[in-house]
Every structure is written in structure tokens, then in C-alpha cells.
């Protein structure tokens, strides 16, 4: 079983640490594509800082983020598990996992990124800003850039629990293995709504529960639903489509 996570929009900025080494990241077959995307991002931020704020969809602190992007190859790095912050990662709490769950996280968690393609939690990266919705000058969309190379790099036959948001789901999907997408809704007075903040928190907590569970990894969507239900959530599993992809809805009541 693999757990597919998005990156976080907000990121910690390490004060010290060795600079980026692309060759040291997991899945070295992605190095050439990573270098091309990295160079395009650095070039944009160095040559057109004002335009970069718009292309990258940055806000009031855009100039600071652009300056950091422009120097990414020299910026200090830290493990991805410490760089990515925010609601999902707060509830996943990688650093607070028991030892066995940490080992499982190192094997099972894949973090998808418009800049790096895919990362393991131990991969050392600098703080950066590039979303899956941003198209860099001279490159295709992130999905078009990454989908072909990730298809070659990642396993096609292992059950995946997809905790990513929509734009990151487009970067890669397994071709031959079951995929369980996790959606979250709030039910109140018989009415269901989708709340983004709550969904991130629940997805992080679900990922943590699946890692803490020390039983044999589930191999079917039904087994994933049973594990999540056993951890205390109300779940509804939809029928799988022809490609073996099913949606599991976690229902929060309140």
C-alpha cells in the first residue's frame, strides 16, 4: 500500500543545512526533469520577479518567496517531512509517529510536487513555492511534464490510497493497481458540504491511522475502508470504475 500526499502550500524555511543535491533524491531517474523544472523556476524568478509573483499566484509576501526561489540551488535543505507544514501535515505528525509507523512512512508515503515530481519523506529539499496550477515559461503544464516520467518511475501494481487534492491527482495515477481516492464531507441536519480545511485535517489523520496500524497492508479498497472505519470514522465506499479506481468518502457529522 502506498499513501499519496500533496505538498503543503506553506513551508518551513530551514536556517541551516546542506544545499540541494538533486542526485540524492529518491527516484534518480527523475533527475533530468527535476533539473529542467528547477532551472525554469529559478530563471523566471531571477529574470522577471514581478511576473513571477503573478505566474506563481503569490500574495503580499510574493517578493520574499520569489527571492528564495531564485536562489534555490544554494538554499539550505531539510527532510521533506519537516519542510511541509500546514493542516494535513500537522495531523499526520510524522515526527511524533511511533518507530514502526515511521519506518512504514518512509516506505509507503509519496509526496507529489510540481517541482520535484515525487518525494519520499526523508528527501532533503529547500523551501520553495510552485503549485501544480502554475505553468512555467517554456514548459508544459505540470501534469503534462510529470505524468509520462512518473508513469515510468513509480510502481503500477501496488494499491494506492490517494489523499491528494485535485491538481496533484493529475500528476500520476497507477495504471494497473487499485486506487482509493479519499474525499471528506461534513453532514449537518441531513445536508452535506465539502470544507477544505476540515478535509485536509481528516486526510492527515487518516494517513496517520493507516501508518500506525501495524497489521498487514490492505490490498483492496474494501480493506482500506475497513481499516479507516475501525479507526473511528464513518465511511462510504463507492463502486470502482473500469480502471479499478474507487472513492471513499469520510463523513464528519456535527
UniProtKB/TrEMBL annotation:
It comes from the Bacteria. It comes from Patulibacter brassicae. Pfam families: H2O2_YaaD. InterPro entries: YaaA. The lineage of its organism: Bacteria, Bacillati, Actinomycetota, Thermoleophilia, Solirubrobacterales. This is Peroxide stress protein YaaA.
